[in-house]
Amino acid sequence: MGIYDKLNEQQREAVLHTEGPLLILAGAGSGKTRVLTHRIAYLIEEKRVNPWNILAITFTNKAAGEMRERVDKLVGAGSESVWVSTFHSACVRILRRHIGLLGYDTNFTIYDSDDQKTLMKDVCRLLKIDTKMFKERMFLGAVSHAKEELITPQEFRLEAEGDFTKRKIADVYEEYEKQLRANNALDFDDLLVKTVQLFQTQADVLDHYQERFRYVMVDEYQDTNTVQFELVRILSSKYRNLCVVGDDDQSIYKFRGANIRNILNFEQFFEDARVIKLEQNYRSTSNILNAANAVISNNIGRKDKTLWTANGEGGKIEFRQFDTGYDEAEYIVDDIRKCVKEEECTYNDHAVLYRTNAQSRVFEEKFVTANIPYKIVGGVNFYARREIKDLLSYLKTVDNGKDDLAVRRIVNVPKRGIGLTSINRIQEYAAAKEISFYEALMGADLIPGIGRGLSKLTSFVALIEHFKADAREMSVSELMKEIIEETGYIESLESEDAEDTEARIENIDELISKIVLFEEMCEETGTPATLGGFLEEVALVADIDSLDENSDYVVLMTLHSAKGLEFPHVYLAGLEDGIFPSYMTITSEDPEDVEEERRLCYVGITRAEKKLTLTCARRRMVRGETQYNRMSRFLNEIPTELVSTGAVFEKEPEESRRQMQKRNIYTQAKQAFQTKVYAAAKPAKQFGAPSSHNLSYEVGDRVRHVKFGEGTVTGIIEGGRDYEVTVDFDGPGTKKMFAAFAKLQKV
Fold first, then answer.
1. SS3 90
2. Which of 30, 48, 54 is nearest to 276 (CA)?
3. So which residues are the catalytic ones?
4. Whole-number percent of the chain with pLDDT over 90
5. Predicted confidence (pLDDT) per residue in 478-516, tens digit
6. What is the mean pLDDT of the chain?
7. Contact at 8 Å (CB) between 387 and 354?
8. Per-residue DSSP letter, 652
């Protein structure tokens, strides 16, 4: 057998079983890619299958490229005839030949996400839809979801009867499709949908491809959606040689449309299917795997399997609970430094994983301070992010109007109708007079050719001067909140309708947390918390240009980005209820949401090869406010004998944990909310904003919000120009908002 002798018993069984439907349940680190590539080699070399009769589908170009390389190496001559492809690229190849049968030209255009947004804006304009009430992004998401579920515009309209919002979506969906067809264009979802439609309506085309692809293999099957399932089902229905490989325990892309039922119900769709489990893990120690098995066994919606390894028991899992998130980051950075110094390992051996991108900020600062090289995977360094640079530029302009780069960055952010022509004229005038850009702005009426732009420039200068006056009376955190509020920065982000808006707002919350921490540290050391002092600290921390990305570095990434990777030492940080799993998940009425988060935890644990460290904090700064959290319920699910005794690791009673689901995290910190950090802001001068309201509700009252539904008011704080109201909504959880914008109605 040669190359097949190195496979374990289950791997070999999966390779040799070539006829009929086959589900390979491949646990984390069990060598699934090796099985797929060896199966292709076996079909060609031993079963004499023509290479062009084999189709291997995966999700990313990178995965397809790696599989292609390994197949070429194993098979040699003739391997280039095997179709190793992503779903989308396989469909494009088919449609380029046959889409004429559906009434399109074969030279159709493929619209990327930006093209889709532009088209959707045109559709909304044509249908006279108020995009402040109905966001373009909402329509795009709804249309994409409908296509993933193979729901046509006509079917969508039938389902929308009696629902005002759905009827609006149906109108948009029909017009969007009409415009796409008129433009001879397809969006990404269409590539799959039109291929399925082609196969459903053109029997001869379907028969051609069923004959062509007698053996179909799909990798990462747990990530498939409904239209992808239908595509592989119909394509393999003639010869039924469909082999799918996946792990239901690693299905973490529900938010992208992945349908875990495709893998869970495989034997129902294909009654004579063979199921082979790959449970031997080649990556991790048995202690790490036992912890992963214990956590994931709490999920109800899963296939039963238990990972094991011949790698030995390994060290116990390290668990550390800290007083603050700041202490947590300090410990992790120090532990990595010690490991590299004492154990002769490299920085590359270490990865820090967390739930959201915003959590990277405190780690980045600590790594910079400790002079340890690091790299963020799947994200941008915190202080290089657009929204952070924008808001810091406001602070820099208030602190030092001579910083031309900062002033130029924000003069039209958010958009104020100050065009590039005006900015260039101001720049030329400032250069000619040898004054700063801001000084030129202050005397804008003297600049030739400014014309109608003068009032906008004058308004911008007045706004900055207002902030300068505030800066003399307010703390830095109060000033930052004032700037965000007065400029409408968050509203401008939301109006952009971008997919990453929520992440950007989380980053702004993290910046406020950073400022509050700076103020607290100044108070502890008895030094004044000045705006200049804060900007100086940020400048020192943000100086990461000296890092050589080709050098040895620690990897920082979210858990979603970590899937498919492995590291000798993994730190899983922020394991607290409310952070991971998130508060939205805990309060969700759908138990599937917590199960998805648990799968994400399982993915995180199984990234570790030799050493796993789990950390959490009793209190953490979120949105500039101290949040008191319990240990994550996922920690509670790990057997205590697997965990080191370096810290107290006591399981919490189940009853208190159930109560935690019903209670608002922030109410635990109710007393803390009365401290200095949350004191009311000093009254500010008004810039066309409404003054403080006489509220029709108070703490404890039930209220209704147009978007979030009903909830209970848990806090009201009088701010500089408005009341800041905290509401514990029944579905979306806790929200803080200004009364003027919230327009809450007492129930």
1. helix
2. 30
3. 32-33, 219-220, 250, 607
4. 53
5. 999 999 999 999 999 888 767 778 889 989 999 999 999
6. 86
7. no
8. P
